[in-house]
Amino acid sequence: MASTLDRSAVQSRVNVWKMAQEQLDDVARLIGLDEGVHAYLREAKRVLQVSVPVRMDDGRLQMFEGFRVQHNMSRGPGKGGIRFHPDVTLDEVKALAMWMTWKCALVNIPFGGAKGGVICDPKAMSERELERLTRRFTSEISIIIGPEKDIPAPDVYTTPQIMAWIMDTFSMQHGYSVAGVVTGKPVSIGGSLGRDKATARGCLYVVDEAMREIGKERSGARVAVQGFGNAGMHAADLMDAAGYQIVAVSDSRGGVANDAGLDIEGLIAYKARTGSVVGFKGGEALDNKAVLEYDCDVLVPAALEKVITPENAPRVRAKIIAEAANGPTLPDADDILYDRGIMVLPDILANAGGVTVSYFEWVQDLQNNFWEEDEINDRLRRKMVRAFTETLEAAKHHRVNMRRGAYAVAIDRVAEATMSRGLYP
Ligand code: NAD
Predict the structure, then answer these.
(1) By CB atoms within 10 Å of each CB, which of 156, 186, 224, 232 scores lowest?
(2) Any ligand 1 atom below 6 A from CB of 82
(3) Which residues form the domain of 141?
(4) Which of 252, 329, 361 to mutate to test the pocket of ligand 1 (most atoms within 8 A of CB)?
């Protein structure tokens, strides 16, 4: 599969790791961060690059390249997903690891930031090939992961089944079941209730808060969603159930729109049957870039990064952008959106529900004590609302946008932990 993300010249020029570092630099100036701590936080603590040999179904041996990056672990073990995608780069994984550090700090869970990725095309691989790839990759990175060290989770094109293979491989190597080595597992092997929808549910909770803040009713508010995978599909589903009206969605192959509101249940069933939202009869066909500029109140980018650019930002019509995806907005686009009065709920806030319930899963695994779904959702809501409120307060205090506000809260927490621990040796 060639990458289906349409990358414009602007997008491809941007190095996402440099972008993540510049976001840090920007907020370091804003909060007067100590120079030494700033230099420390600018770099990843540890980068592991591995070669992964896999026997393919036709008997060939194929080599894959994979990464696990740990950005900062001052506040606890590393935490972050593993991405299987043809466009994965080391710089992308480093950026995603840094964003995980800020995200965990913002929702105040005791984890540092990490991320992993394998350059591969999962859509062109059989289930058996994916299992062999996952198991060998897990074995290669097992020297740095573990329940007290670094705990992977799902990300783009990785699933609960893949998490189960990671857990099983690590457990086989240790001679006993180690459920806490990975989150996003199936419930039957220590996964948490509510984890599958947690990213989307967290996103819904902060959108609700943002709607209240800008004085808009959620009932009938129009929503457009880019990406119809774990984050995007569940966001559309939960927002639909909460009274929002989903008017446009897209996936890698294209989109569909209906101004009277899409039948989300029907669309989910259609996607499960056909593999895409394209061709769904309950709406008009839509170009998957056009979804970003669709007439709506809330835009939820839930696919890949760098999709909102200085080029399309002036045409965005939403009043709130909730970044379910990581890094969907380029920094220059951020400024344009802020000047236009559009409230951007940054990725480290809007999609932090996933890592929050991952934290709950890890806690449950360590205690062998599993909670009811209502309790999980209630704890999640409290964490998300608190993070939203702290972000808004910081944004107002510094007179900046919500992203800078969220970074100010998060970087301050990580810096405090880093300074409290001091330097070894
Ligand atoms: P996923 O693999 O389940 O879904 C990705 C979706 O994006 C698919 O529907 C795919 O078709 C679509 N897509 C790809 N290219 C597209 C394009 N050009 N236009 C429109 N759609 C396109 O992945 P996911 O887990 O939902 O992750 C999506 C984003 O959310 C990523 O940025 C990820 O880092 C972020 N995220 C996910 C979680 C989680 O818990 N799953 C948590 C935090 C952040």
Answers:
(1) 186
(2) no
(3) 44-177
(4) 252
